[in-house]
Amino acid sequence: MGKALRGKAAPPVPEESDDDYKGSWGAKLDSFAPPEIPPAPAKAPPAAKPAAAEKVPAAKPAEAPAVKPAAAPAAAAPASTERMTIQESLDSLMSLQGALCAALVDSGSGMILGQSGSGINMDIAAAGATEAVRAKLATMNSLGLTDTIDDMIITLSSQYHVVRPLTRDPKVFLYVIVDKAQSNLAMARYKVTEYDGRLVM
Fold first, then answer.
1. Assigned superfamily of 86-198
2. Is the pTM of this model over 0.85?
3. Sheet of strand 152-155: strand arrangement
């Protein structure tokens, strides 16, 4: 029996080639490889807590600017309606450019109540101006006119004669003679009108 066992050789174990390993055991071992674990998702950083709102101090109401006391008004210039005496008015009229003479005349009597200037015989000139005023008033009366005379302008070759009955008493008139070449007739009329309102008798 021992011989019989010795006589039969064990069958050769077939050698496994690389291909057989790969197809059998290798494949099985590979199947046991742990599955690839995906990386854990990154945790988002914790949300920052909203910063507490800073308390802004309430703005103080703007203070009204201090009101400075008003400065004392400067001394006012003399008003144009300041009253003037007869002589002051006549002397002021003589400040007109080209003024020769000025007078205040009563047309009822032809008398001069005041005068300023020189170079002309004002008694004669006043008498002639009185006759002109009387004649004009008589003419207005004949025509039934109720108007008043603002002024009368007598134009000579070298002079202007300005006659203006006073507003408060038309029987009295201002009489101004100016040099035609040197004076301004419009200014002369304006000034005579101004002193009509300022003159105090």
1. Dynein light chain 2a, cytoplasmic (3.30.450.30)
2. no
3. 112-117, 99-106, 172-179, 159-165, 152-155
